[in-house]
Amino acid sequence: MTEKTELQLLPPSLLARLERMELVSRKVFRGRLKGERRSKRKGQSVEFADFRNYVPGDDLRFVDWNLYARLDKLFLKLFLEEEDLHVYFLIDASPSMDFGEPTKFFAAKQVAAALGFVGMCRGDRVRLEFLGQENKTSPVLRGRSQLWRMLEFVETVQPNQVFRLTDAVKRFCLRNTGRGIVVLLSDLMDKTGYEPALRMLLGQQMDVFVLQILSPEEMQPDLSGDLKLVDCEDHDETEISVTSAVLKKYQQTLAAFVDQARRFCAQRGMVHLLARSDHGAEVIVGQYLRERGLVR
Amino acid sequence: MSWIPTLGWAGWLAIALVPPLIIMLYFLKLRRQPVEVPSTYLWRRTIEDLHVNSIWQRLRKNLLLLLQLVAVAAMILALLRPGIRGSESLGDRRILLIDNSCSMQATDVESSRLARAKKEALELIDGMETNDAVMVIAFSDRADIRQGFTSDKRRLRAAIQGIEPTFRTTDLNEALRAASGLANPGRTSQMEDLNDIQVAEALPATLYIFSDGGFPPPQIDLGNLTATYVPIGSPDAHNVGIVAFTVERNAENETQVAAFAQVQNFGTEAADAGLSLYLDDELIDARQVQIDAESASGVEFEIQNLETGRLRLELEYDDALAADNIAYAGLDPPKQLEVVLVTEGNAALEAALSTSRVTELAAVRVARPSELETPEFGQLLRSGTVDLFIFDGCAPAVAPEANTLYIDALPPGDQWGAGEPSGPLFIIDVNRSHPLMQYVDLGTVRIVEGRALQMPGGGTELARTDAGILMAVAPRDAYLDAVIAMPLIRRTEEGAVPNTDWPIKRGFPVFFFNALQVLGGATATAASKSVQPGNPVPLAVTTRYESVEVLRPDGGAERLERGNSPQFIYSQTDLPGFYQVTGGEGRLLQLFAVNLFSDRESNIRPAPELQIGAETVEGKVNQKELVRVEYWRWLLIVALIVLGIEWYAYNRRIAL
To answer: How far is it, in rounded angstroms, from Cα B422 to Cα B187?
Structure first.
């Protein structure tokens, strides 16, 4: 079961590629590159690392005044910044994700597992959380040996919970106050709106990536005739006579919807990415996310 | 617009249920197929946008329904057979009489009056009911049934379109007789005779006469026929035509010829026309004539030194009818007769046959009675190459193949008889009406001795004495035998002594000249015959021709065989112009002309009404009223097109 899942979700060839990647936070620097660049913020778990000479323009707050008193020279205290990174993957487990071939849910799980594996390999603290009526959270995973635990956890969840995205994100935020990278994997098809949820994540000062996953059936619907469309979540019925004009209009609406999400994110410093569920993790991670700067 | 419902009330009830049924089916059809989608979120937004144009949306939604209803409406309308219809209802049987006489060639309407008449007749055919029977008769001076009663519109159209114009005159009688043959059967059953069954039932019919009315009122009772007269032609059509053209030789000078023409103006304005006279296609004279409105003017031409030839008179005037603007007249060629005189010697007779007029007319050969027995003469008798044999005091054993004149002898056979000679004789009666006796005065002739004739049946008495018939003529097969039952010279022992003083009278050479003309076949009329188109022409051709060839104006030729009849009769005179009759060796035997020369045909103003028997038929100008223009085909086509669009729309889900 586990092996099968691994093969399905993360084939060995993909794992090999993922091992060479690392997650990048635009807000949080990793400590291994100490002294090369300066952090905009001080690390919280401060670990002293070294001293260096003061050069004009350095922040005076980091001058070691004791040494100045003793040696009459200005030295700067260098701290070892926090090396590990909190990476959260929020996966939408609503029934609407269970559409497409492969399903959007599968694609979301695959991308989350792949990115999680990248983080785990680099010693980041990875946590997966399935959004639902009750959020289902994995333990913190760290180190590549935890891969099996992650995959096992992923398999236990089914996309069958009807919930509001805002409520689920709120639950996440209440529990996780720490900073880090948040990757939200969802189709954003919430009739109450996805904007409050994203604002809440921003309020946590997290580096937010929104991966909007849509199935090919949603992007190019293959419908015709007089139909009664039934919503799989709230069973809302919409009668429609599908004509070429209606299809055209649908495409316009979809494009406007995606564009609106992209603009909403861009204006607030979030990264939005649209992915098709049939593209696979290799393309999404290796190509799209790399271009958008989440991995390198 | 009128309607002919084609269904009964039950049918209409069923039809009326169709549109509600379609609407019901349409709603039934709209039971939508449920499809589960991840979210109706985007679809709702899409539809909300579209609902802005909700009227169009609704229309688009119902496009198929609308198209189906339109198609059904068009079909229902087609079932009602809408059409524009005349005020009077048409008879079940219709007879179309279409005038194709010469006056219908007038071009005052469209291409010609005949074309207009055909067009109107075709419109009538188009408008007829499916079960109507129509008969088509073309008429000029004779009737031609082009199509018997049928309801096959295609055949009727072909029959009408096949009517060609002619140059003939017009006579409605024959056409009416043909038409009324059906409507008014002549035979009636007799009450007392059980075997006499009425052969035909009287069937009333409507008669449509497409004509300009240029014919004498037909004397016929219409009976069951209802006549409708459709006048063809413009009431202010004008025409100037030649109504007569004759040629006559001057009696004193044979080579001088006078040509007379009469030109009539049938219009309401005075006309100034030019007349050109052509001799054998060469212009020899021209005149300008002024003709007052509705009057005629005579023109005379004098031509010198003309023995034979073809004269053509052309009227140069632009009018509606061209056929009467050319007239033809011919001068017959002089004839050379072959005459054989068999005599022992008769100075008086030979003198009478050697006058200048006779030598112009005939070549006279003299033979002796002894030659009668020779085979050569026998062959000559049978050859038919001789126009006239004159036997003086002798007779052949077998009657020759020619006309004969016997003097003091009887034709062979026992048909003729004569009494014993007696005398003196006195002429008591002369048949002056016979062409042989024209200008022959026998009143003062003294006769020493003569016989009384018994002539065969059919013979004509020419002169009678106190003793009986002295001269007579009688037919023999195709020939004529004339007999004079007295000798001109009595041969006595003292020699030849005159038996009568006739040879010294003026009437003697005149009689022999008449004999050459009548018996020899040389009728010395100056001008050749002229007949109206379509009329038969008897050809005065000498008996020795067994067959002749007639060359028509259009260049065609026709060979005529004599058969058993004494005369050739030529009847294919449809075209105006010259007809040349030639013998076997190409010699021109006779020339005759065919001319219209009919003031009825030339007067092309259409008659406002017709007088048929005792009935007056008013012209009905607005023929269109009779025609029913049907629209049901168009409605069906619309229905088919709409159905096609509906089908396309259903398959393509196109948005209009």
So the answer is: 62
**Residue A165 sits in the same domain as residue A151:** yes
Tell me if B130 sits within 8 A of B120, measured CB to CB.
no
Cβ of A257 within 8 Å of Cβ of B49? The answer is: no
State whether B39 and A232 contact (CB < 8 Å): yes
Is B506 within 8 Å of chain A by CB?
no
Distance from CA of A82 to the nearest CA of B (A): 42
Report CA-CA distances (Å) from A14 to A17, A119, A183, B512.
5, 14, 20, 144
In a domain, A76, yes or no: yes
**What is the tens place of the pLDDT at every residue in B221-230?**
887 788 888 8
**Residue B53 near chain A (CB below 8 Å):** no
Q: A51-80 pLDDT, tens per residue?
A: 888 888 888 888 888 989 999 988 888 765
Please judge whether A250 and B42 are an interchain contact, meaning their C-beta atoms are less than 8 angstroms apart: yes
pLDDT tens digits for range B566-596: 678 888 888 888 888 887 666 777 788 888 8
Task: Tell me the mean pLDDT in the region B494-503.
Answer: 86
Closest by Cβ to B49, choosing from A97, A242, A249: A249
Point out the domain boundary residue: A80, A99, A118: A80
The reply to whether A156 and A76 lie within a common domain is: no
Same domain, A189 and A65: no
- Does residue A264 sit within a domain? no
Does A212 lie at the interface with B, CB-CB under 8 angstroms?
A: no
Does residue A138 share a domain with residue A273?
A: yes
ipTM value for the complex:
0.77
Structural domain total, chain A: 2
* Host domain of residue A13: 2-26+85-216+269-292
How many A-B residue pairs are in contact by the CB < 8 A criterion? 98
- Check if B30 contacts A (Cβ < 8 Å): yes
Shared domain for A35 and A177, answered yes or no, is no
* B20/chain A closest Cα distance in angstroms: 21
Comparing CB atoms, the residue among A96, A232, A238 nearest residue B44 is A238
Judgement on whether residues A112 and A190 belong to the same structural domain of the protein: yes
Residues A286 and A152 in one domain: yes
Distance, CA of A242 to CA of A220 (rounded, Å): 13
Cβ–Cβ of A246/B36 closer than 8 Å?
A: no
- Do B35 and A99 lie within an 8 Å CB cutoff? no
pLDDT band (50, 70, 90) for residue B84: low
Predicted model pTM: 0.46
CA angle A230, A232, A238 (to 5 degrees): 20
Contact B536, B594 (CB under 8 A): no
Please name the residue ranges forming H helices in chain A: 2-9, 12-19, 65-71, 104-121, 147-155, 165-175, 195-203, 216-219, 244-267, 280-283, 290-292
From the list B129, B139, B127, the residue with the least C-alpha distance to B209 is B139
The model's pLDDT over B138-152, given as tens digits with 9 standing for 90+, comes to 998 888 888 888 888
pLDDT, mean of residues B16-41: 78
Using the Cβ of A13 and the Cβ atoms of chain B, whether some distance falls under 8 Å is answered with no
Residue A237, in any domain of the structure: no
Interface contact A231, partner B, CB < 8 A: yes
- Of A61, A80, A99, the last residue of a domain is A80
**Nearest to residue B527, comparing CAs of B233, B231, B248, B202?**
B248
Give the DSSP H or E segment for B247. Answer: strand B240-249
Closest residue in A to B40 (Cα) is: A231
**Are A52 and A195 part of one and the same domain?**
no
User: What CATH number corresponds to the domain at position A151?
Assistant: 3.40.50.410
Identify the pLDDT of residue B415.
87
Q: What is the pLDDT of residues B334-346, one digit of tens each?
A: 667 888 999 988 8
A66–B contact, CB cutoff 8 A: no
A54 within a domain of the structure (yes/no): yes
Residue A255 touches chain B, beta carbons under 8 Å? no
